[in-house]
Design brief:
Low-confidence stretches: none
Strand content: 5-15%
Number of strands: 15
Structural class: alpha/beta
CATH superfamily of the largest domain: HUPs
Radius of gyration: 24 Å
Mean pLDDT: 89
Distance between the termini: 69 Å
Number of domains: 3
CATH class of the largest domain: Alpha Beta
């Protein structure tokens, strides 16, 4: 038994950016409910990196919602397309990966994805099943179903073409190979991030040209990082990524995850609620009203942090993380476990700003220098404002960086 279509649409449309086409989705949900036949829904990923963060969980959660409504979900591992390399959003050709590298990342990805998806109701496929077998004649036929002009509609390709940057032929082939996945699997719906819209629509177009019923395309937002901010009433900032050091990994320790989530801006947190929380929209709106009425934003962010830590680590871990956060970040205590870092400066002299960078407490020495000069650094419990302060060799120094969002390390100067 499927819920009424109106109820399904409320759940499925929440947080969606693109929906091609809404009327078709409603029709297929009606037909699905009448026939007692679940929709087939797929989302593909190229396993290029082994670590997932909560930005990836936005798409995974939408897949889980389809599962919870009774539909069949396929997680497509792009083990073949990952070796081609998705050019989406790149100004240069991406490095080619080996099959061993792809397979290793895929195993890790699947294990992490199971923290969000119901693995007992999940079909997993690899596109090497059919793309490895594609003959040259079939590949030529696939390429004949699109044009160079269509490929140049993509912003990244167009920009590279206008700037006379190289576009390799295999990059043009990538959207077609991803689209061919849709031809083979014949799913009703394909999900992806907003950056994948062009590729997903190529799949929809190809299905029609191969005599298949075109898939419905739905995209979820690209989540900003923990440094997101509000400008003109809109959440802005770089997307969540490890390279930007603004990510929350779904495998990170509960206290680390909790602390990072509490770093999100007081207003930006509501976008995270909308995309990742299981709370009904009416409750999220009530929290907005509470904040406007003067409720402490820390309390509101803690609700979200508890929910996320509980999702990935369990309720008990969430409770412990909340207690630890209150003890450390809202009090003056150091964490129970502080990472220990040994630094070996040239000449045996370790200036504080340099040591902070080596301990990964700041993204650069310049940033560390600013933090020290602004009074945001303590060494062994004492505030230090001179970035050239030398750490005593042979000793372990407890260094705290930041005031609102504190980070700690025990730094030992050796060598």
């Amino acid at each position: 038994m499927f819920p009424p279509v109106s109820e399904q649409l409320v759940v499925l449309a929440r947080g969606i950016v693109d929906l091609h086409v809404h009327a078709e989705l409603e029709q297929r949900l009606e037909a699905s409910r009448s026939a007692g036949r679940p929709l087939r829904v797929k989302a593909g990923f190229d396993p290029t990196r082994p670590d997932l963060h909560i930005g990836h969980a936005v798409l995974l959660q939408k897949m889980r919602q389809f599962q919870d409504l009774g539909h069949l979900v396929t997680l497509l591992v792009g083990d073949f397309t990952a070796m081609v390399g998705d050019p989406t959003g790149h100004n240069e050709s991406r490095p080619r990966l080996t099959r061993d590298e792809v397979n290793h990342a895929a195993e890790t990805y699947l294990a992490q994805a199971s923290k969000v998806l119901d693995s007992s109701r999940l079909e997993t496929r690899r596109n090497s099943e059919w793309l490895d077998k594609l003959t040259l004649a079939e590949a030529v036929e696939l390429m004949a179903k699109s044009t160079v002009a269509r490929m140049l509609e993509r912003k990244d390709f167009r920009q590279r073409f206008d700037e006379q940057r190289a576009i390799h032929q295999h990059e043009f082939l990538y959207p077609l190979l991803q689209g061919y996945d849709s031809v083979v699997l014949e799913c009703d719906v394909e999900l992806g991030g907003t950056d994948q819209l062009f590729n997903l629509l190529v799949g929809r177009d190809l299905m029609g040209k191969y005599g298949k019923r075109p898939q419905i395309v739905m995209t979820t937002p690209i989540l900003e990082g923990t440094d997101a901010r509000i400008e003109g009433g809109v959440v802005v900032g770089p997307k969540m990524s490890k390279s930007a050091n603004n990510y929350v990994g779904i495998q990170e320790a509960p206290d680390v995850m909790f602390r990072k989530l509490m770093q999100i801006g007081d207003d930006a947190i509501f976008k995270f609620f909308e995309l990742l929380s299981a709370l009904p929209t009416v409750q999220i709106d009530a929290l907005r009203q509470d904040k406007a009425a003067g409720r402490n934003p820390i309390e509101i962010k803690a609700i979200f942090a508890r929910e996320m830590v509980a999702r990935f680590h369990g309720p008990a871990a969430a409770e412990r993380a909340a207690v630890e956060f209150n003890r450390v970040s809202l009090g003056d205590a150091a964490p129970a476990e502080v990472p220990e870092v040994e630094v070996s400066p040239h000449g045996g002299v370790a200036e504080l700003a340099w040591a902070i960078k080596q301990a990964n407490l700041a993204a650069s020495t310049n940033e560390a220098r600013r933090l020290v000069e602004q009074g945001g650094v303590e060494v062994d419990g004492n505030r230090v404002t001179d970035p050239k302060t030398r750490l005593e060799p042979g000793r372990s120094h407890l260094v705290r960086v930041g005031s609102k969002n504190r980070r700690f390390a025990r730094i030992r100067v050796v060598g």
